[in-house]
Design goal:
The protein has seven helices and ten strands. With 266 residues, the protein is α/β, with parallel strands linked by helices. Helix 6 links the parallel strand 7 and strand 8. Helix 4 packs across helix 5 and helix 5 runs parallel beside helix 6. The radius of gyration is 19 Å and the shape is globular. It binds adenosine-5'-triphosphate. The site of adenosine-5'-triphosphate (ATP) has 11 residues, from strand 3 and helix 2.
Length: 266
């Protein structure tokens, strides 16, 4: 489907072999069932002057199947770049990446997600050439809309939806295609508070209903950590900490308070 970035075909990314993948899982403590792994990923760009500008340095992470993880860090620390590498939209300069398939990258702006005139048609869009009967397509669409709490919206024109509802329709489209990994880039940036919580709850609900779906959510909002099974904190192109969301929240709060103390005392 083109309203989400659906990646079912192989990319040029170097993938971890199952043996190496399991090894990495043990190293990072995620068990043998990681759905998303990166090892020592580096990414740099060439400047206009012909120099090399590092964006990501030695980023490693492992996210177990069936969990919702959040990726946090200050503006410009490399969160979106890392997510795009996991999605296969960017190729790392070096390092290894493994992400279960099918995987879907959901864009930040809700208006970039949805292309069809009605909710039902939009969710069904990616099943167009799948060979399913129309009854099967309808059943998959309904199930996916139920997972995001929008089963009553099947016939609704897309332009009548709020931003958060559009995000949920986009996520339903991914689920209808049996997506295993959702890569969600700051979905709540454009949304008001009730829409934000609606989208997070929809993602959480999808994961609760299917142990087979894993989500990585880029965010700036500390309060969203409450819904996470795990978190990754980045600074300056590096993964600084990776694991328990409460500990990551503590780390970020400590950094924020030391920053405001420095500002107040200068
Ligand atoms: N193609 C590029 N050329 C030059 N610099 C780039 C390029 N892509 C990313 N950057 C820089 O790399 C850094 C990381 O960008 P990225 O968008 O990944 O950060 P982010 O953590 O997602 O930021 P934000 O929270 O503000 O969205 C930024 O300083 C950005 O300007």
């Amino acid at each position: 489907m083109n309203h989400l970035c659906n990646m079912t075909s192989p990319t040029s990314l170097p993938l971890l072999s199952p043996v190496r993948s399991n090894l990495l899982s043990r190293v990072n403590g995620s068990g043998d069932n990681a759905a998303i792994e990166a090892r020592k990923v580096n990414f740099s760009v060439t400047t206009r002057q012909g120099g090399t500008l590092p964006i990501l340095t030695n980023c490693s992470l492992a996210i177990p199947s069936g969990q919702l993880w959040m990726l946090l860090g200050p503006n410009g620390c490399g969160k979106s770049t890392l997510l795009k590498i996991l999605a296969g939209l960017l190729t790392p300069t070096n390092g290894k990446v493994f992400v279960k398939r099918p995987k879907n990258y959901v864009f930040q702006n809700p208006d970039h997600q949805v292309v069809m005139p009605t909710v039902g048609a939009d969710v069904a869009f990616g099943l167009g050439n799948s060979g399913f009967s129309s009854k099967e397509v309808r059943s998959k669409v309904l199930k996916a809309l139920e997972a995001v709490g929008m089963s009553d919206y099947m016939q609704r024109p897309i332009q009548t939806l709020s931003g958060g509802q559009k995000q949920r329709v986009a996520i339903a489209g991914a689920l209808a295609e049996a997506c295993k990994v959702l890569l969600l880039d700051e979905l709540t940036t454009f949304l008001d508070e009730s829409d934000q919580i609606g989208v997070i709850k929809a993602v959480k609900n999808c994961l609760d209903k299917s142990e087979d779906v894993t989500a990585l959510w880029v965010t700036h909002r500390l309060e969203e950590l409450e819904y996470a099974d795990g978190a990754i904190y980045m600074e300056d192109g590096r993964v600084i900490k990776h694991g328990d969301p409460i500990r990551i929240m503590g780390l970020i709060r400590a950094k924020q308070s030391s920053y405001s103390n420095r500002i107040n005392s200068s």
